[in-house]
């Protein structure tokens, strides 16, 4: 009988010094993110109103109305990626919020409490003990709160906590993005009566959002400027999808982790020429790699799909981890099925309906059969060998369907594995567990290829 591992060379060796070959063009994104947060920190000094929002990618509405916005998830992810989240999470723990609560929310709520402590006392005692708190003290308080969550129920509660913590005095607007159940006979991806109804329903709320912004600023909303803003977003989205399509080649010139660090430009950064410039650079580098045969993983043998939210504490760590077993994570649900995936729907002369439709097709917002069908299309397109499910401990919205996703992967001859971690709380990640499961998965994929 053939054993799973025929030679020592076939066995994955972690810590072997191999590194992911990251795109150089993504460094420009880090500069844009830093500049964005610096502009947020200056907002009050410059006399600008600040919106705190959570959920889908609605900043074009704020940008077009000369507002400054704070995306709660982006703030928490940034703190976690820079290992500055512990102070905020500690303050949230002191307040009594359970560690099983969404760690995005828990981090942001903790930061908010630190901010209020600062206002009350002029400083916070933790700052002396934890210099990482200093960055969090710069975040300006909200003048408005907007919630726009597809699927996730924690998001509404998160913003309600913010509203109550600020004394129920901050104007709040909630956009309901309903689930696309897909149960009607004519239902499908972007088709059917339900799709049409839901599209109009969300578009009406987005129009109402502009009225809310007018009422709380005393200024008329400029719909022409919204179209101009969306022209940059749409072009950036098109470039991004074109660059992603180039990764069907072997070896893949970019990985899931390159797309992870490229989320900010299509999620919350200002809609201007910088977005287009960023993805022009990414696409150009990928095109050059395709020409020369340069891969994101130096010795690509296996191609994987990553399901689940990103563990922001471990982005570089995980990129190198998979490279060490010659596995390229080529695509993922979070990167390849979200964020302006259907830019052709956006009419720049009247963009609101197309924007609403892009918000609706967040992958979590589909019934499981349609969502899993779309995942399989991505896996087929990128020639995926296995599915890695990051069971994010505090993100139920992303993990609810993962057993079905893993079952579908196995049905179509792909390997599947789970590992636990979290979006922003590093304590839930166990490196030894990932090592064991990833090694077993790679051995199984090796055995299958030898048998074939």
From TrEMBL:
<keyword id="KW-0408">Iron</keyword>
<protein>
    <submittedName>
        <fullName>2-hydroxyacyl-CoA dehydratase</fullName>
    </submittedName>
</protein>
<comment type="similarity">
    <text>Belongs to the FldB/FldC dehydratase alpha/beta subunit family.</text>
</comment>
<dbReference type="GO" id="GO:0051536">
    <property type="term" value="F:iron-sulfur cluster binding"/>
</dbReference>
<dbReference type="Pfam" id="PF06050">
    <property type="entry name" value="HGD-D"/>
</dbReference>
<keyword id="KW-0479">Metal-binding</keyword>
<keyword id="KW-0411">Iron-sulfur</keyword>
<dbReference type="GO" id="GO:0046872">
    <property type="term" value="F:metal ion binding"/>
</dbReference>
<dbReference type="InterPro" id="IPR010327">
    <property type="entry name" value="FldB/FldC_alpha/beta"/>
</dbReference>
């Amino acid at each position: 009988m053939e054993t799973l591992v025929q030679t020592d060379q076939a066995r994955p060796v972690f810590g072997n010094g191999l590194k992911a070959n990251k795109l150089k063009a993504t460094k420009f994104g880090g500069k844009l993110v830093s500049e964005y947060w610096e502009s947020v920190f200056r907002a009050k000094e410059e006399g600008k109103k600040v919106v705190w929002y959570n959920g889908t990618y609605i900043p074009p509405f704020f940008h077009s109305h000369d507002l400054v916005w704070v995306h709660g998830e982006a703030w928490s992810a940034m703190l976690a990626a820079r290992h500055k989240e512990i102070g905020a999470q500690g303050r949230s723990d002191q307040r009594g919020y359970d560690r099983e609560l969404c760690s995005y929310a828990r981090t942001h709520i903790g930061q908010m409490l630190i901010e209020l402590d600062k206002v009350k006392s002029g400083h916070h005692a933790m700052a002396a003990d934890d210099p990482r708190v200093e960055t969090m003290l710069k975040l300006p308080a909200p003048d408005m709160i907007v919630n726009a969550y597809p699927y996730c129920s924690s998001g509404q509660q998160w913003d309600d906590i913010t509203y109550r913590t600020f004394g129920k005095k901050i104007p709040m607007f909630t956009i309901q993005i309903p689930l696309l159940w897909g149960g009607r006979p004519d239902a499908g991806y972007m088709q059917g009566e339900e799709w049409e109804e839901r599209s109009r329903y969300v578009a009406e709320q987005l129009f109402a959002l502009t009225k809310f912004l007018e009422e709380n600023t005393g200024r008329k909303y400029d719909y022409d400027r919204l179209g101009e803003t969306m022209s940059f977003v749409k072009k950036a989205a098109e470039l991004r999808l074109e660059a992603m399509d180039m990764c069907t080649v072997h070896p893949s010139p970019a990985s899931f982790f390159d797309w992870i660090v490229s989320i900010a430009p299509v999620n919350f950064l200002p809609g201007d020429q910088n977005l287009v410039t960023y993805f022009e650079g990414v696409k150009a580098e990928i095109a050059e790699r395709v020409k020369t045969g340069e891969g994101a993983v130096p010795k690509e043998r296996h191609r994987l799909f990553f399901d689940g939210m990103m563990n922001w504490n471990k982005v570089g760590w995980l990129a190198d981890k998979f490279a060490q077993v010659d596995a390229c994570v080529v695509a993922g649900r979070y990167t390849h099925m979200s964020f302006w995936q259907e830019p052709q729907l956006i009419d720049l002369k009247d963009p609101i309906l197309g924007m609403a439709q892009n918000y609706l097709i967040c992958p979590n917002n589909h019934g499981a059969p349609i969502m899993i069908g779309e995942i399989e299309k991505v896996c087929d397109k990128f020639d995926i060998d296995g599915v890695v499910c990051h069971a994010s401990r505090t993100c139920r919205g992303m993990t609810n369907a993962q057993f079905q996703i893993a079952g579908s992967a196995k049905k179509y001859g792909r390997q599947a594995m789970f590992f636990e971690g979290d979006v922003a709380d590093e304590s839930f990640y166990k490196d030894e567990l990932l090592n064991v499961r990833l090694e077993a998965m790679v051995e199984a994929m090796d055995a299958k290829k030898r048998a074939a």
